[in-house]
């Protein structure tokens, strides 16, 4: 039996007649950073809650460090829930110290660790500021620091980047890398593909409760292969024009003048074959660029355009949660 930090085997969760997580299996091996991706409502948070034993699965099995999720192995985990919440009257330092103490650290070590974390993440000057007086992003950072203060072996972070401005997103990326370098295994959910692209050893992608991808970034890119990006004047349906000719074509999420499309290239095809077909179809081309796939394109192709449209961009990640 595996004693990996986390393994889910054929896990299913239903709410009434609705199946939120459907026959999901994956493993988080020690030492990896894994991105848990999927559009809104895909079942990510439900899966993470089951992983911690917050709610039981209707079918299948969850193992944390090779055992059922219970107090002994939960002490080795740091969990950042999607719903944020801290004691508003406590100051930043006491908050982190409090959570570290709950996970078994001594008062002295917890306080020293709180100071060290606040200092390295730019919050040193706000050590004694009450949570209620901090900005939303700062309070979220305090919550993240509270999650990892006890140096857990395994960090589970549900949408940790959501609500942080680009500077603080970078601080969090650095923090995740530092935790990983210290030896922690990390599983985090996100809507922002670029974070996953920069940080992850592996990606697990969900759509409508089912796993649609489980592999390295290279495996993810290989699902699309090479492609060409084509920008057209708005209003031309390139998928309808090229589909019958055997090309796989998707709208991309790129913003900008015109409408961007991606044409996947089959083995043996070159970008010029795509360009020739596009021109023969009479498409109003305003831009053309041969390129390799990106995780955003993989996401769109596996999850579907409509659901992928809800993706956040890193700069556009907006605070939704209350802290
Ligand atoms: N306690 C619950 N009772 C009923 N339905 C629920 C409950 N929790 C989740 N759901 C439903 O299950 C589905 C999956 O929700 P979940 O929160 O796991 O998705 P998610 O992938 O985390 O989405 P998001 O990125 O929007 O947080 C959604 O349709 C949600 O409405």
TrEMBL record:
Residues of the ABC transporter domain: 6-233
SMART domains, per database record: AAA
UniProt-listed PANTHER family: ABC TRANSPORTER, ATP-BINDING PROTEIN (PTHR43335)
GO molecular function per UniProt: ATP binding; ATP hydrolysis activity
Name of the protein: ABC transporter ATP-binding protein
Family: Belongs to the ABC transporter superfamily.
InterPro entries, alphabetized: AAA+_ATPase (IPR003593), ABC_transporter-like_ATP-bd (IPR003439), ABC_transporter-like_CS (IPR017871), P-loop_NTPase (IPR027417)
Keyword set, alphabetical order: ATP-binding, Nucleotide-binding, Transport
Keyword Signal: no
